[in-house]
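In the previous chapter we treated chains in isolation. Here, by contrast, the input contains two separate entities that must be folded as one system, with a combined length of 911 residues.
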Amino acid sequence: MARQAPVRDVAPTVQRLRMRYAKRGRLRFTSTRDFQRALERALRRTGVPMAYSQGFNPHPRISYTNAAPTGTASEAEYVELAVTTELDPEAVRAALDAALPPGLDVLEVVAVRSPDFAERLEASVWVIELPGVGRETATAAVAAFLAAGDVPVQRLTKSGMRSFDARGPVVRLEVRPDAPGAEDADGAPCAILDLVVRHVTPSVRPDDVLAALRLVADLVPPVPSRVTRLAQGPLVADASVGAAMDAVTDPLAPDRG
Amino acid sequence: MPVESVFPQLEALLPLVTKPVQYVGGELNAVTKPWDSVSVHWALMYPDAYEVGVPNQGVQILYEVLNEHPDALAERTYAVWPDLERLMREHGVPQFTVDGHRPVGAFDLLGLSFSTELGYTNMLTALDLAGVPIHARDRDESHPVVVAGGHAAFNPEAIADFVDAAVLGDGEQAVLAITEIVRGWKSEGRPGGREELLLRLARTGGVYVPSFYDVDYLPDGRIQRVAPNRPGVPWRVAKHTVMDLDEWPYPKAPLVPLAESVHERMSVEIFRGCTRGCRFCQAGMITRPVRERSARTIAEMVDNGLAKTGYEEVGLLSLSSADHSEIAVIAKGLADRYEGTETGLSLPSTRVDAFNIELANELTRNGRRSGLTFAPEGGSERMRKVINKMVTEEDLIRTVATAYGNGWRQVKLYFMCGLPTETDDDVLQIAELASRVIETGRQVSGTKDIRCTVSIGGFVPKPHTPFQWAAQLDHETTDARLRKLRDAIRADRRYGKSIGFRYHDGRPGIVEGLLSRGDRRVGAVIEQVWRSGARFDGWSEHFSFDAWMAAAETAFAGQPVDVDWFTTRERDQAEVLPWDHLDSGLDKDWLWEDWQDALADVEVEDCRWSPCFDCGVCDQMGTEIQVGPSGSTLLGMPALPPRGAGLVASAADR
């Protein structure tokens, strides 16, 4: 006799909500799984009427897309929720933001009006702070990286150790000109890199680009870098001109009324 | 003066270590009070990894009780893994709390909760990283008072060199009493320094200060006597017992960590204490008498806790949860209340009893029926009489038949190996029992798709139990016996494939035995093994038996004692035990009689349902059994708020 999951009376999904949240400060050390648990508990505390899956072990219907790696901060993480009652997106945003700890901040919630959201996340804009690295050193390393045809790097992925090119998907990499913030509090140098990367498989992450800079130019930051994703979304036609921030557009635009 | 956070220095190290989230704090319901707003500062440590320590109920309760005090604060600290320890030493970052990231050395008190003795080396690491001398005698007024609690504190002699004080029993009222003494002493300008503060604590009779007691030894190594060495310090120190748990419904706001922990659920303690009288069970002996929470308080704690945490599962915790006098009301009431809300309810620690299947069925009426766990503990009928686990083989078979018949697919059975008077045959009967379980299960369920897992570990005799005099079985014999059992299960062609076998090898148990029944001479072994690099001894990947044995050889050199003397040696009635001056309320003569009854296969009833059999606790401690039924119900509890209230889109938005 095969085991069968009980067929239960599960309320249907009547609305989907898309949400952008930030991972800031010390909470950048949370992993995707840590965020998932925190979100699911916040949803229960706030009483959001979640739609649940069928089966032996029903779970709330939430999809996570393209999460930033553990240890990197982000201003642009996206999650989609299925709910059983039509809700006011702004009320959900305010309630969830209040229920999540400071540092996991819900920035926007919109009702889903368009399909294919994941495909819209074509590229990410990152900023990489390198305390202890001077602007000239960083500039030379970036130049060497951009001049290279490809830069194979290795990383342990879910499917084992993979070797892949870190150069190809990089749309832009540049050292920010001297500006406030180019030195840290003690006056030590702190180069800031702007990075735009196209999403491919396996994904090229900021740590892969840093590994590549080490390979091509021996750039070894004396202390760990601070990395923040500023945005992700559709890549503009000419992403190499203008501000790095403008290289992608708002992926939620098609869902706004 | 405010105490600064060390987080900026720590933050630079976090990208270099595994699971950095465990060091950042930020748990839901955590509290950080301004340093200068209170006069008494407690650091509370669970001396194991964050993922093990953060769910600990004892620490969560004391954390909340202390933070509610207007003139005290409490922050938590846990053992850091060796990768971070190395970096902290390299960069001069001290042991820190996860709440305010304040250095542990700045606190007035460091309270450590020892559920197990295997956390002792982690305590030394934390003290050393905090810049606190590991020996109590080397500390001065600038250092925190180091206080041990938890079950292992009922014999803290092995760590007497390292702790300033130990508190036995329930901590809720004890920490408040200690806070008052520290507060008074500080406000008077710290008269008499550290010595005076410790004296004030010791003279209450409820705080054990090891340095105020001298231990004399006989030439053969046994203890001659333990005597106070300061005027006004009592000969015996008593345990603390909180009466009326309805008055202490903690934790009211359970901590919800961001990091994954070993218990991804909320716990509500439904009663404290157990008088089943299992002779191996230290918890049951030292937490007497039974004190129940009423059904109504339990339901309110579940309700309030779920609202404050968002957990999806609640465990109804105690030493034997189905024994609560109102358990049927509680189970049905909670199952009704949370029906349709995707909230799981579970009853850990249930006895082998068909009634418990009904309870489990009720609690899972909407959810999954995966596995049930029972603990017969002894493999043979005779062993179960020796340990006073009053369960017959027929009880067990009837219970598992009910379980499999109700759709449960997996039954886990817990046993111990190395119990007093045990032979190979007693343990081998576990294999026969497991075969009968599968045979019965296949009959009643009509399927071969059922399993039984046998989980077995070595027995460690503990202080304040009738087995405190017993010889621990040496690890070679334990391992040999477990191998025979494994082979017997594997050889079972009909049922062996449906029986899982999990066992723990006997060597960690010998170290646990050394520490749990050790005296002050064992302190040198702990220090020696810690200096040689021992950390996280409760983790098999970190534990080194050889390092412990080498440390013992060095530390015990020239003494009449060794590891065997502390572990595999049977004690006689006249011997002064290292913990005799620590009063759990149990009458030593009663314990001895119970030990003799064990050797004669004589069972003893539970005093909840039979006349008092004079274990001594209630008389000695001025306590009484508090069991219901209280007659309270869940009727009239406010209805759960409807989902989505306040979030629903108005017609205008659509």
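The first strand of chain A starts at residue 15 and ends at 23. The interface with chain B takes residues 1, 3, 8, 26-27, 29-31, 33-34, 37-38, 40-49, 52, 56-58, 60, 70-71, 83-88, 91-92, 95, 99, 101, 103, 223-224 of chain A (CB under 8 Å). Compare these points with the single-chain example from earlier in the chapter.
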